[in-house]
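Figure 3 (text version): structure tokens given as input.
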């Protein structure tokens, strides 16, 4: 197993920039990566849900990975999203990620087919055996239709190549149950921006964030304050971000995030069906959010 670096702090679940035709925009990809380097982002997830993973071809996944490792790799962790309803496809993506020298893979629970808990154990252990890359499990029942239970993860994490869990189920008691499990110590990462600050203060090691796409300096600052135990300052910054979190969830991810990045001039207005560009009825609210949070971001530059 490779030693995984810096899987902590503010980790941006990156959008995949595209041209209006839907093809990858390599120039915009390089701009985004450089922006995150300069903004203090600790890590990036490439080809995850926010990156429209279900619409990416394997050669595009490889292209994104190669450039992310080359450009961002010496500054922080590069984590490749390899989640799929198919164990075989997840394994193939993990092998591509390994060839590209990524630091780890992030694998969401197999969506749509809703495997039972025992099958999740087999799925993740097969993936962990398939390459040397460390595996971060990802639980987001609101998207997948299946909730990976803490007692199931307690079994999964016994595999030496499982190094963490991104938990997006924010129900009361879930984080406490995960942080207090016996057995191998692994990293618990928040997957829910709205409760991320509280999770960090309770012991989570980092956040894989959608908001970090659009206000990377501010979000990295909030994570740093929470890690340092500066609760009041972290809470104040987190409270200021709540309207942004709401906006980024106003319709399917990454539609709002892509609109915001396009408004910043960092990406073109490309997105792949079945997703569409931000609906016209949301544009006025989006402009208000943009003005509000660009002022906040500028204070942390």
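Below: residues designed for each position.
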């Amino acid at each position: 197993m490779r030693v995984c670096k810096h899987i902590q702090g503010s980790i941006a679940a990156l959008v995949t920039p595209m041209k209006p035709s839907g093809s990858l925009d390599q120039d915009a990809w390089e701009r985004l990566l450089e922006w995150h380097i300069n903004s203090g982002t600790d890590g990036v997830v490439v080809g995850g849900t926010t990156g429209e993973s279900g619409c990416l071809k394997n050669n595009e996944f490889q292209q994104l990975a190669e450039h992310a490792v080359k450009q961002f790799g010496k500054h922080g962790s590069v984590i490749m999203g390899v989640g799929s309803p198919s164990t075989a496809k997840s394994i193939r993506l993990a092998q591509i990620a390994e060839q590209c020298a990524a630091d780890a893979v992030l694998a969401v629970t197999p969506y749509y087919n809703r495997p039972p808990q025992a099958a999740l154990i087999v799925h993740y252990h097969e993936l962990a055996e398939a390459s040397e890359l460390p595996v971060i499990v990802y639980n987001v029942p609101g998207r997948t239709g299946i909730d990976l239970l803490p007692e199931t993860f307690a079994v999964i994490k016994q595999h030496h190549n499982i190094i963490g869990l991104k938990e997006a189920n924010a129900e009361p008691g879930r984080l406490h149950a995960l942080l207090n499990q016996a057995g191998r110590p692994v990293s618990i990462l928040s997957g829910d921006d709205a409760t991320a600050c509280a999770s960090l203060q309770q012991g989570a090691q980092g956040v894989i964030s959608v908001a970090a796409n659009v206000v990377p300096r501010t979000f990295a600052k909030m994570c740093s304050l929470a890690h340092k135990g500066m609760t009041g300052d972290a809470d104040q910054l987190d409270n200021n971000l709540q309207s942004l979190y709401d906006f980024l969830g106003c319709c399917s991810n990454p539609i709002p995030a892509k609109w915001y990045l396009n408004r910043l001039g960092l990406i073109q207005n490309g997105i792949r069906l079945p997703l569409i560009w931000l609906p016209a009825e949301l544009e006025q609210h989006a402009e208000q959010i943009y003005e509000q949070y660009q002022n906040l971001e500028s204070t942390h530059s």
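The radius of gyration is 18 Å.
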